Amino acid sequence: MPLVSTKEMFEKAYKGGYAIGAFNVNNMEIIQGITEAAKEENAPLILQVSSGARKYANHTYLVKLVEAAIQETGLPIALHLDHGDTFELCKSCIDGGFTSVMIDGSHHSFEDNIALTRQVVEYAHAHGVTVEGELGRLAGIEDAVNVSEKDASYTDPDQVQEFVEKTGVDSLAIAIGTSHGAYKFKPGQKPQLRFDILEEVEKRLPGFPIVLHGASSVIPKYVDIINANGGRMPDAIGIPEEMLRKAASMAVCKINIDSDLRLAMTAAIREHFAQSPEHFDPRQYLSPARANIKELVKHKLVNVLGCNNKA
Ligand code: G3H
Ligand code: 13P
Ligand code: ZN
Question: Residue 255 class from Cβ within 10 Å (0-12 exposed, 13-18 middle, 19+ buried)?
Fold first, then answer.
């Protein structure tokens, strides 16, 4: 099976009331852990690459690793650019074999976001590639994007129809209170998402796939292991799983997960070195790191996304 676009995946997910997991990948162990989990659960997958991941691992290496995972698993897998910020970056990924791209124009004015997104859609659709746009701004920090709380803003449901019609995007990322990174809520703050906004968006765009970024749950088990083994992440708080399940049963068809993968991997490595400080063979600490990724992804596919047995 070759790489697939997200079109058919989203049609099935919308009708079936589940979501596809979009997992960020940076190296071989992460790709293996995710795809081994998906094979055992017979789940479709989106593997996504940020511009930072592309700089770290090299475009060709990542494409070849994902192709190897398809050969090994036989699963429908889409290779997606996460948070593309320019037409040139999106074009380079489309020309280089990606089957889906995100153009994140959320930091531009509404009009400029439409113009940039439309430009990417025209090129992408001419090459059979699907496009995700974004309206509204999530707070949080990643390599390439850093949005302070005061600059974050919820998606305005009154804008979504015009944006989708004028751009021709295939899916839309919206801001309803999720944020990037491991510190999504303040200690003592009750985690909340604006499901009223999601409902309004759903009414204005019936049948149209919605994307949630910043959707890691920051699983306490991994944070506790990190902190028990020399780490310092006392206030890490994520999105409760029941909220993600609710979103997946609504119009949300793609749920982005990166921070949880980082935590699962780091927990295994910290624990390994605390218990076996004499070890220095990378295979000794990357094997449990990969096993933790697999365990985490199986949990997400079955208990959060509901996409097991949907490949
Ligand atoms: O939302 C983006 C992902 O978490 C990627 O993060 O830019 O540090 O690779 P990165
Ligand atoms: P998290 O930081 O919550 O994992 O979000 C990842 C993401 O949105 C990637 O685009
Ligand atoms: Zn994101």
Answer: buried
